Amino acid sequence: MTTALQTLTGHKDRVWNVSWNPQGTILTTCGTDHSIRIWAKEGDTWTSKNVMSDAHSRTVRCVAWSPCGNTLASASFDATVNIWDCKTADIECVATLEGHDNEVKCVSWSASGSLLATCSRDKSVWVWEVGEDDEYECLAVMPSHTQDVKKVTFHPSLDILASASYDNSIKLYKESNDDWSVFCTLNGHESTVWSIAFDGSGQRLASCSDDRTVKIWQEYQPGNNEGIATPNNEPAWKCVCTLSGFHNRAIYDIAWCRLTGAIATSCGDDVIHVFKEQPQADKNAPMFDLILTIPQAHTDDVNSVSWNPTVAGLLASGSDDCTVKLWDFTHIF
Amino acid sequence: MAGFSGVLKLTDLDDFIAPSQECIKPVKVEQKAGRGVIRIDDSDGLDVMAEPPKYEKAKITLNDCLACSGCITSAEVVLVSQQSHDELYRILEENNKKVESERLVVVLSLSPQSVLSIAAKYSMETDECIQKLAGYFKSLGVNYVFDTNFARTFSLLEAQKEFITRYKEKDSNPKAIPMLASTCPGWICYAEKTHGSYILPYISSTKSPQQVMGSLVKDLWATQKGITPDKIYHATVMPCFDKKLEAARDDFYNEVYSTREVDCVITSVEVEQMLIRDDITLPSFNSSPLDTDLSSGSMITSHPGSASGGYAHNVFIHAAKELFDKDQDKLEWKTLRNTDFREVTLQVNGETVLRFALAYGFRNIQNLVQKLKRGKSPYHYVEVMACPSGCLNGGAQIRPENGVSAKDLVTKLEEAYENIPISNPESESKVATVYTEWLGGGDSEKVKKFLHTQYKSIEKTTSALGIKW
Asked: Which domains are seen in chain B, by residue range?
């Protein structure tokens, strides 16, 4: 089936990011029109429930729900991150995180919900602590990348952070002695790394890049059976698979479904691809099959894809064509 | 951008591109009417050619850079490197070639943090190190070597006085308290560029020891010696590059004599380079005692409190006595969120009347400023330093040897710092003399002129040319 389940219109300009709440009942989208839109299912159709039209003074680049599902964070080109209390239908902005020098590109919550990470064109990655009374305190400022940082994402269960940058690298961070620092840098992509996604276990990371490839990285703990060196007694990450030849343009987003293990990519060639690992594959040399291609999924670059966390096979995508589309891929699983 | 504090590096996060490509500072070109050049190609047309206009070489000074936030300072870095040990070598070489009567008097002021950094590197005791350094620099042609702790006494005394004044007017002036320390140029530059007029009123107007030293050398001492300020070349040795930016500020330029209060700042790592270049084994070099005119003594002495100057400590103790008649001696600092964020309080009749903090490093500065913006800061005074662990861990301090962690080195330097004999700022008689004889007493115009300074917010100029993708 190459037609969308539903097309959601409303955004007046490009849609940068689509994000589900942890319960999978709300889809949140944001974009260049400064707005954040909340969509929920009414009967059989998804409808617009809320439009926060002046959520920021510039493009809203990314939205992310806290694991408890009550709080929404939005990152904007206006250099701030807003925190929204969504416990009731009366959504209120309860805090604004300032400090980045210019456009904030991404925001991510830790699995516990007690930490927040942000990244920006100012090349730094910040970690914030969620305090009482909507007080957010800066825990660390890490200027480790040498260029614009496009994406940050927390590990699915541990307080480990990953970031992807225009400088072609991916960095992994963790805390020791009250301070956050880089413990591993993943090099291999030949151009901007636009997005990264951990799998459900957190031992694998998928990355997508302007170099039109997807890379799968595997974690090797100290003392691993494969004999991979782990300098400084820190886990090492190695690239175990590269998917090339499938995409014709830069790959802007990648999503790894925790329910099905499927990987979805969204590309500048307007296409959405879905890959799945071959079941008998060797952990150290996995093989991924392309199981679905949606040519012309949108009429312009597809900026974001996201799997619904509770409904297997339900995918959302957002595009430069100002629309959001929902896809039902349950038949392929 | 090695050598700068993490805070300055973060506010100036653009790529290194030569200033000629990126600089958006509008350079004024004198427009002279009339002279045009008419050239017509190839074909047989008019061929009126006047002289091609001679343009003046466009110069961007360090000050232009500080004032403009546009290109973010790859130009800053280039220019700052001009104020370096190479420059000092050059000046000394030139000076040595001049006739006696034409020569500049070269003065060098050593900061305690730099001395400790160098001492650790060469495994020397503090006193031994400072004397060897004095010996070394004198062998290069420096005429007088002082330490900056004498100057620091003034900074501490002024900060103490200023706090009392501010505390007393806190109910009528919302921007009086908290008072934020002003001696760290990384913090000041960041505050001016990023938070502007909001935060500046909270910052103490007291000058840093480096700049107080500048005033002492080029005014008081110059007068005593019968030399004009422009005949003195004053260099300082500091733990970070941020101090170079401080020395270059407009406010510290003497217009009458067209001379800077501090002409050149070199750093601990640069001294290390100089010693390597000259193939010097410092421990076996000749010793020379410190010159005592403007030093804390012929041997270095220090002040109680943190190794970044002890501002919070001394202001607290003075305030406790002056405002509440409480004698405090050893302060109990409570570590909050992390070791670079600590606080101390004074309770009187169950009420907290004084709450001071140390906030070192960018994340703590961030949190402090954000809390202030929201009106939720509980502090009366904060000693703000851009570098985590303070000046001993400055951006241009000598790196630890292989196998030694930066943390361990800082701990070692802190121990060495604490072993320097201490004197309380109030008890230095030489300082009292300077106040009465040179400055004309406690709050005179001269005190304001020589021991205090001001700040101005720098507008961010967002020109398309300035954006780097």
From this structure: 72-152+208-300 (3.40.50.1780), 157-207+304-425 (3.40.950.10)
